[in-house]
Design brief:
Distance between the termini: 58 Å
CATH architecture of the largest domain: Alpha-Beta Complex
Structural class: alpha/beta
CATH superfamily of the largest domain: Spore Coat Polysaccharide Biosynthesis Protein SpsA, Chain A
Shape: globular
Number of domains: 2
Helix content: 10-25%
């Protein structure tokens, strides 16, 4: 079957709900699982599906994302594959930046003219899932789709946060509502599997994954269908174009908030996590050539470690520890994500800091960290206690912020010895 496809990964907007992790980086560049970036997920799904023509659209805080793409994805000179960046731009025809998801693709269409493709796969850069896009493409082609939307069953409580659609027995979408009120859900149930129905998941939510037939998408843009896929393009296509629902049954989560980000990472520590890092479909990322992690005298349970860590902690439990993390003796890390560091601190600097009582990069001696996210390159002094929970009001506290009881220590923050948070 012809699968002449070009994939477009949307870099997202300002990512305010993931602040402060998005203060100096875009959402797709946020580190996940100790060694990857969020953008590695859709790119890896494409590559594992045999789709190797990939464009990443960027606009806000794109420097670290651009650097990661450039350093991670290289194809040999005999391959026609690529992972390229398309940055938002102003020109004589258009002086505005991207006004929405559809507008980002619309403004990029002129750059796609040099490529040979029949279908466009549009993906979000901030979701966690493993999916074979070939199956969705086959469904689109076999059913003569103009637009196919990947959907996932959700319950009534979650439905108000998604674009919810209703489909008939043949998968044709008959109605679509972007983030409907709870009162609007009556009559919007769709046919789902018996397992999902038993779990109360009878509403089909858009996953933000779309396949367009090339000619149809161009026609929609020529008709001026709007700037956003969820608010404009999808509702206007129903009844006018063959708009299909492709129901996905696997694990999928949208990394839209600090809480969802925190939970998705800690889920990786379970005996049987919902997102399987140890599958035959690898997650690709930058090869950093780091040494193996070194752990000395620590009690470790349900923890995930990146590469190049130096760990002397007393205890690490239910936590993700990122690349190049250093944790000194006597410290305890529980229910936390420590992102690690971008580089190793100079040994001479470490000695001088120890003599002067200044924190070194990493986590010092006799610290206690619970329900927290430590962004990269943090300097946590000795005897620091950070204990997250609902008892701490949400807000920005300078070197750290709190959302939903989760303490997020900002990138490069220096936390003085003896500091207590929570």
């Amino acid at each position: 079957m012809n699968r002449n496809v070009i994939s477009i990964v949307l870099g997202g907007g300002r990512g305010t709900r993931l602040f402060p992790l998005t203060y100096s980086r875009s959402k797709p560049a946020v580190p996940i699982a100790g060694k990857y970036r969020l953008v590695d997920i859709p790119i890896s799904n494409c590559l594992n599906s045999g789709l190797n023509k990939i464009l990443v659209l960027t606009q806000f805080n794109s420097a670290s994302l651009n650097s990661h793409i450039k350093n991670s994805y290289h194809f040999d000179i005999f391959s026609k594959g690529f992972v390229d960046i398309l940055a938002a731009e102003q020109n004589v025809e258009n002086e505005s930046w991207y006004q929405g998801t559809a507008d980002a693709v619309r403004q990029s269409m002129k750059h796609l003219e040099k490529y040979d493709y029949d279908y466009i796969l549009i993906l979000s850069g901030d979701q966690l899932y493993q999916m074979d896009f070939r199956e969705m493409l086959d469904f689109h082609i076999e059913n003569g789709g103009d637009l196919t939307i990947a959907t996932i069953p959700v319950n009534a409580k979650d439905a108000t946060g998604f674009g919810i659609l209703k489909s008939d027995d043949e998968g044709n979408i008959t109605s679509f509502y972007e983030k409907p009120d709870y009162d609007m859900l009556e009559g919007m149930k769709s046919e789902v599997s018996a397992e999902n129905k038993h779990a109360g998941k009878e509403f089909l939510a858009s996953m933000g994954i779309y396949i367009f037939t090339k000619t149809i998408l161009k026609k929609m843009f020529d008709e001026g269908a709007g700037d956003d896929f969820g608010k404009d393009i999808i509702p206007s296509s129903i009844g006018k174009y063959k708009t299909l629902s492709y129901q996905y049954e696997g694990y999928w989560t949208d990394i839209g908030t600090i809480e969802s980000f925190y939970e998705a990472n800690l889920d990786l520590c379970l005996d049987l996590p919902q997102f399987n890092l140890f599958s035959s479909s690898p997650i690709y990322t930058r090869a950093r050539m780091l040494p193996p992690s070194k752990i000395n005298g620590s009690y470790v349970s349900k923890a995930v470690f990146g590469d190049g860590c130096i760990i002397m902690a007393d205890k690490i439990e239910n936590s993700v520890i990122g690349n190049r993390t250093r944790i000194d003796k006597g410290s305890t890390i529980v229910n936390s994500y420590v992102m690690g560091a971008d580089f190793y601190q100079n040994t001479t600097e470490i000695v001088l800091n120890d003599r002067a009582g200044r924190p070194n990069m990493g986590i010092g001696k006799y610290c206690y960290i619970e329900k927290a996210i430590l962004d990269k390159n943090c300097y946590i002094g000795d005897n620091v206690k950070i204990i997250g929970g609902k008892h701490i009001p949400d807000g920005d506290y300078g070197t750290y912020s709190v959302q939903d009881g989760i303490v997020v220590v900002k990138k490069g923050a220096v936390i003085a010895p003896g500091t207590h948070v929570g």
